[in-house]
Amino acid sequence: MLPALLGSAGLLLAAPAQGQIALDPNLNFENWVQRNTAVAAGVEAPQNWQTFDDLLSVLAESQLPLTTATTTKTIEDQNGTFAVKIENKAYAPLQSLIPVLSGVASLGNGIKFSTTGDEFTGIPCTSRPTQLQFYYQLTGPAAARDSAAVFFALTRNVSGETEDVTFFGVLLPPAANYTLVSLPIRYTNNITPDSLHLTFTSGNARRPTAGTTLLVDNITLVTSTATPTRSPALAAAVSIYPNPSPDGRYVLNATEPVLLAAPLTVLDATGRVVRREPAPSAAPTRTLDMSDLAKGIYTLQLATAKGLITKRLVVQ
């Protein structure tokens, strides 16, 4: 079903993100809906994402008697309210044929089969992002052997045939805590895509083991082509206390609450992204907890609607 990986690629900590592509197809897994298309009794599923229930139902050409429960909602989020939990599990109706199923979460609202082997429809996209970023956590006694993975593709329909603009798959190593990953997106052509495909799976091994669990949250597609606007007056509207901080905890204050209702990024001295938070509701103050980071100098970026605000942070 999912293409097997011939080898693993290295995971890269994020380089500074210059801009974000606003697709907003529930990339933070905050929105969940009740669906009864795949499972007769209905099941809660992430909006704009397909699961193994959906895939199995299409293959069987009928509704399933039970959910596989391989893709579920969890409150073990990185930032926000919910994240997606993708698990390897035994499924009673198929256990004699397939002892353990791997969980899947694939972006899009449908599944199709074609001569090119595409299974998940993806979402419309005409941008060419330069990085795929997300937080993940991977645990379980056989997490390394089960080969959890992420697959990314941009495609274009040409005369009824699907052509790859870019494609890659990366194995995810075990991670006991949420880990920020940034994967470079490389192109060998100048084709403008029309669709984006993104799939996470808890197991790409031939015989997955029950108990391997992959949590994913706060996915971001970034591009380095955007030119941020910096304004000294805008930066002066936001203050941070204490700075330096003895424990890595800060309180941000703003003369305009809307300035704090913006995506937040923290870079270390080498330019790597070490913290990324989505935009909260507008408020005059906002907290930032960097107590888990090493002592040193960091750069805070707030991507507001009025421009990019940059501040230096010191953890003593």
TrEMBL record:
Record-linked InterPro entries: Put_CMD_sf, Secre_tail
Domain Secretion system C-terminal sorting, chain residue ranges per copy: 240-315
Entry keyword Signal: yes
Keywords: Signal
Gene3D superfamilies in UniProt: BT2081, beta-jelly-roll domain
A UniProt-annotated Pfam family: Por_Secre_tail
Keyword Membrane recorded: no
Signal sequence, renumbered to the chain: 1-19
Name this polypeptide is given: Por secretion system C-terminal sorting domain-containing protein
Organism: Hymenobacter arizonensis
